[in-house]
């Protein structure tokens, strides 16, 4: 019967398990960032194509949406009765490093079974206290803009309030605006609903969308490699001791 030589250090089972778990997490994070890279490249390609795409009538696009088509980033045009004086909700937003609100109103449509679409009329900085007048009006306002699928909030999102919104909840916003049968998209206006009021700035898409996912992936994989290097050094040192 043989036994391990006295004084020889035992194989570090606990350390090995901890390193294996940490390594799996780091590799998974790096792989996730590569997946995000592919997704972001697709988004940027769609946005690049959007820059030169002609606007389509919104009725035709919403009819396709009703059948399950993806209309995210589609440029459309629509005429909204009374949009310039319509009731609005204020959605918290940050543009070019400045906090403010986006004004959300409802526009009447009749396509694909939808009766309304929510319009993001633009951004107003927090240092502007004035707002467009709200009044009964049917004056037509033709808007060109981009349809966007709303992003859902997460556990860190502030709760929406009637006077201040933090997430684009189509159903809840439409209910407060008394807008029936809303389309499941937002129309991000590219043209002004209130041309005479310069403080309201149409801002449909960020002008500079960062794409650093490859950098993040390399960082995670680099940390995984460094962890393996440290682990190997520990094993080598234990073996020599």
What would you note in describing this structure?
The structure is a single chain. This protein is an alpha/beta fold and 241 residues long. It folds into two domains: 13-40 and 212-240; 55-189, no CATH class. Helix content is 34%, strand content 24%. The chain has helices at residues 13-51, 58-65, 170-176, 213-240, and strands at residues 56-57, 75-81, 89-95, 98-111, 114-125, 140-148, 182-189. The chain has a seven-stranded mixed beta sheet.
Strand order of the largest sheet: 1-2-6-7-5-4-3
Number of strands: 7
> How do the SSEs run, as a string of H and E?
HEHEEEEEHEH
Q: What characteristic shape results from the CA principal axes? A: elongated
Number of helices: 4
Q: Give the tally of structural domains.
A: 2
Q: What percentage of residues falls in helices of 4 or more residues?
A: 25-40%
